[in-house]
Amino acid sequence: MRGWILVERNEIKGWKFTGKNGEFRLPQPDRSSFLYFPLVNEGGMMSSITPKLHGQATSGHNTFLTPPLSVEDLHNSRASRNFWVYVEGKGAWSAAGNSAKQNADFYQDNADESELEAGLLWHRVTRSNKELGVSAEITSFVPCGEDKVELTKVVLTNTGAEKITLTSTAAIPLYARSADDLRDHRHVTSLLNRVYTSPFGIEVQPALSFDERGHRVNHTSYGVFGAEENGSGPVGFFPVQEEFIGEGGSLDWPEAVVLNSKPAIYSEAELEGYEALGGLRFAETVLNPGESHSYIIVLAIEGERIDVPVLMQKFGTAAAFDAKLEENKSFWNDKVNTVEFQTGEHDVDQWMKWVTLQPVLRRLYGNSFLPYHDYGRGGRGWRDLWQDCLALLIMEPEEVRSLLLNNYAGVRIDGSNATIIGSQPGEFIADRNNIPRVWMDHGAWPFLTTMLYLDQSGDLDFLLQEQIYFRDVFMNRAQKRDTSWDAEAGSSLRTASGEVYTGTILEHILLQNLVPFFNVGEHNNILLEGADWNDGLDMAADRGESVTFTSFYASNLLDIARLLRDLKERKGLSTVELAEEMTVLFDSLGEGVDYTSVSGKHEQLERYYAAAPNKVSGVRVALDIDKVAADLERKANWLFEHLRSNEWVQAEDGGGWFNGYYNNDGERVEGEFPGGVRMTLTGQVFPLLGHAAAPEQIPNIINAVEKNLLDDKIGYRLNSRFGGIQQNLGRAFGFAFGHKENGAMFSHMTVMYGNALYKRGYVKEGRKVLDSLYQLSADFATSRMYPGIPEYINEQGRGMYTYLTGSASWLLLTMVTEVFGVKGKLGDLLLQPKLVQEQFDNNGQAGIKTIFAGRELEVVYTSTNRSAYGEYQIQGVTLNGTPVVLQHSLEGVIIPRAVLNALSADKRHLLEVELA
């Protein structure tokens, strides 16, 4: 940690790690705004919770138990998971900190004291009030498994010197409908509510589902249930919000609590047509000094009416709660500790546990259902499918092959892909809004992820497996509509005879990378189309060009060529079978195209579109594998030369960098302008990450980034200040500078920059980049976020859009494969460590636990003199104490897969690596 938060009344530290599994503690958490914590399970329950128990609980866009919210609602809304305590003779107090009186006292000396404790994935807040002599410990989590429930245990303790009498009331608004109804027909949809009480709580099952899908009979049911520590249920209920708060009252100062009113509703009552509340009144209890009393609260969502006795028997006792909490801790600890780092930087190792968790959170939440992520309807985008797999290849490798195979079903025959991703693996849907749009970068990512899979597994047969293609109304990269398309016929590409067509994964990969080669703008770079990785560059669809992703596609073409030669060598293949229509894309096998001619490329692309107009013949041709590889190499090398010669920005100081874009007026975006330097980090990352940047250009790029994009306060900016809103480039420049895609520190691109530097051997510089991410994120005084990596750091240094970001996958990948150098090479294990002095502990060791070849490995590097990178080499390796005969390569040392396959799969194996 790098600082303290100074508050006038007292001094508040940032969070501190307290255990070995990422547990941390934060004093006075409610003195920082916008904090929230994820609670989720594999069964589809998705919650978020704040230090004052704000947040939401849902299982999807149309099934919110509590009101849906954005990050601003965390302090604006009075609705929360409140738990009220009426202290006889002293008045009302919110154990969650959510009362009008506590808010008024917030900056006074009599304000509550509070402390947060949290771990993987559980949340506990302890709050105490000296005047009342009472404290509350509130623990919340979503139990692992398939149940859509959220559990909370409230422990009240008499901290005073005298006996006190307490009356407790849980009060949780039951929204019980679609997020679409938050403003649209909010009152009308409350008229659909059917509210039921039972011995343990309140259940709402609206009569209809009143949303964009139509007014259907609703079956989903929502409930708030509770019990005391002895298993007894509430003594009464407040199921209607307006009756609970009273005329002129509010959820943060409700009449029923402030006046300690007796509930009018008891078990087995039924009500209709009002905004519902999970208001549970418990029996009066007397606590002597030091005594405690606990309550269990269960939030539940079911597809039908809830079987309350079964639910409460499973979750509704203190013993059940404690057992489920321990089970949940073990589940998430095991999940995260699949990858574990042990270095001389203990706090960084613990912080990385939260980074390791983040790709799993994104798989479960998609890009929605957390307060900053208040957009979309769940699910992930095309790019997310592939980048999340990067982390899954390391954490859950056994699941990745089927995921990759399913994902390729979203590729169109024109090289573009589906944009609407279904909830099931491999499910793709025609654009629900009928908007023709293509993100030009989408075709580049699948090969990168697939290549990592091939290196990790050696499974070259995957390339020859067949998969369908996606088809909808759009064709020619969304430039035309297919008037013959019939949605009723399904979304699979068919042959001229009407049969579903399948092609190899290799064919899909080739299409995705060959079509863009010909789809160029007037400067002979690939057209920007709807946008690329930076979705904010979305206003240059006509003449805009993405130079940066031209370099990515160029590197892919070269790497695919090399992979084809590996296929020939390892599998004995002399030909590749492809759809006959694709032969026109391998122009050097016939009449070659002049690659300097933009019009020549366009004509060749039109020939392909005419040959495959949203359908194919079904006939395949066998092409010589060497000639195909040579064609790809020819294209790649031409692009490298083009980029190095035409897109290099020569600076006045003798340095330079790559231009990344052309705008919709056909103007180069980057360079030295009268108003200042214009530069993007993205434009440098992809030439570095692949092969486009020549070795002699790399030092200049690094110097330019340090000079023009590094800000000591917020790190490496995504771009320098362009000035103006740039309507000829994209919406990003309408954002204030230093926020989101306009000049913030965007973690994803910063991590990829660090990864690229490590790949190119610039370890000191790469280390600096990654360390800046940690320092910025862990500096709670400025970032005001829990452990983990945010989507971006804004101009004030605050971490924004926490938890759900693809940068976590890239950081985990970088740490494992580049920093620790545990990587695959077509199935063999390659050790190529790039550790620096600070990462070795006092014993000169740095270790990683990970999975490779289906085996759990612990790799421990020992450098007795803690040499700097570049000063050590691998001198020897022992496997479970036995020396290994090593194969040396230019990259490092290789341990053949056969050696690892001979190991037992049910225990961890130790690789000790001597560096000297």
UniProtKB/TrEMBL annotation:
Gene3D superfamilies: 1.50.10.10, Glycoside hydrolase, family 65, N-terminal domain (2.70.98.40)
Example GO BP: carbohydrate metabolic process
Source lineage: Bacteria, Bacillati, Bacillota, Bacilli, Bacillales
Name used for this protein in its record: Cellobiose phosphorylase
Domain of life of the native organism: Bacteria
InterPro entries given in the database record: 6-hairpin_glycosidase_sf, 6hp_glycosidase-like_sf, Gal_mutarotase_sf_dom, GH65_N, GH94_catalytic, GH94_Enzymes, Glyco_hydrolase_94_b-supersand
GO MF assignments: carbohydrate binding; glycosyltransferase activity
CDD domains per record: GH94N_LBP_like
Cited Pfam families: GH94_b-supersand, Glyco_hydro_94
Keywords associated with the record: Glycosyltransferase, Transferase
Species this protein is from: Paenibacillus agri
Domain Glycosyl hydrolase 94 supersandwich: 125-315
Glycosyl hydrolase 94 catalytic domain span: 331-565, 631-821
